[in-house]
Amino acid sequence: MQFSLFSLPLRYFFEVARTGSVNQAAQRLHVAASAVSRQLAKLEDSVGVPLFERQPRGMALTAAGARLLAHVNAQEAQSHGLVQQLQDLATQQAQQVRVACTEGFAVGFLPRVMSAFRAQHPSVQMQLQVVVPQEASALLLRGEVDLALKYSLAPDKGLQVLHSAVAPVYAVVVPGHPLARQRSVRVADVVAYPLLMGGASITGRQLFDLSCTVQGLRYAPAVESNFSSALLPLLEGLDVVLAGYLTAAHWVEDGRLVAVPFEEAQLQQRRLQVLAPEGREPSALVRAFTETLVAAIGEYGTRKVGRRKKAAVAKATAKAG
């Protein structure tokens, strides 16, 4: 399908110059010959010089017309190149999956999902941006990513929720920790131990602070970092880290750490969400990755926490004995 970036008068001029005939140009353009003549007259009026000599056997370019045709030919070549670039860009975008996530997902969980997806789709071009929750939403709204994975405390205007699940905050400890043997913990239990805390922008920290305020509890973090995933390797002895289950899943699965749920309602209020911009049709690859991502999230249910916790604590107890 031919496509022109020219204005209507220039398109008509170009066809008449190529064919040397108003009637033949009209046939190629699928319009009436009178329409072509009107557009030529309009163009000549705008430039202030005649572009054609009207001859009995057709239309001959004047010197001004020849100069304009040379310019139009150059522009036509550039236009075709631009259209090809745009088409190539569309093809490239169809092969891309651009994801933004908060840092808790970027250490263990999301790389596993991406690796599995790449094995199934070798030609995919993946991009991952690790940002704070607010920036993940902003990237979606600006069209710089296709999907975002983050914890959320409130709806984001202009974004559609592709998947949502309750994402409680857990107290993460080593298997030998006194809290590791409990089915659940309270905030008052946790503040009695050294706390390794994420920054104020972390949703888990915000909910924990809210619960402390409600209960009149105070604490001073033993370690504080804007990169909460760096806190898990620091856990030892009586330390406690607040984390979502997916953030600590690769540690919990290996039996190195235990995730214990909180009893307080405040620590159950956030949701894990897969988000996309409203009103944009995703590519087939983005849809496929969304399905893979949602399926992977489903594999890490809270139903697994108790079973793994029991095994890890038993192992730690046997080692201590």
| Major sheet characteristics | 5 strands, mixed
Basic shape: rod-shaped
Counting DSSP E segments of at least 2 residues, the number of strands comes to 12
pLDDT < 50 runs, ≥5 residues: 302-309, 311-318
* CATH fold-type name of the largest domain: D-Maltodextrin-Binding Protein, domain 2
Radius of gyration: 32 Å
Going by helix content, strand content and strand pairing, the class is alpha/beta
How many domains? The number is 3
Please report which band the strand proportion falls in: under 5%, 5-15%, 15-25%, 25-35%, 35-45% or over 45%: 15-25%
Helix content: 40-55%
Question: Could you give the topology of this structure?
Answer:
Layout: H1 8-19, H2 22-29, H3 33-47, E1 52-55, E2 58-61, H4 63-94, E3 96-101, H5 103-106, H6 109-120, E4 125-130, H7 133-141, E5 147-152, E6 159-166, E7 169-173, H8 187-190, E8 195-198, H9 203-215, E9 223-225, E10 240-244, H10 245-253, E11 258-261, E12 271-277, H11 284-299, H12 303-320
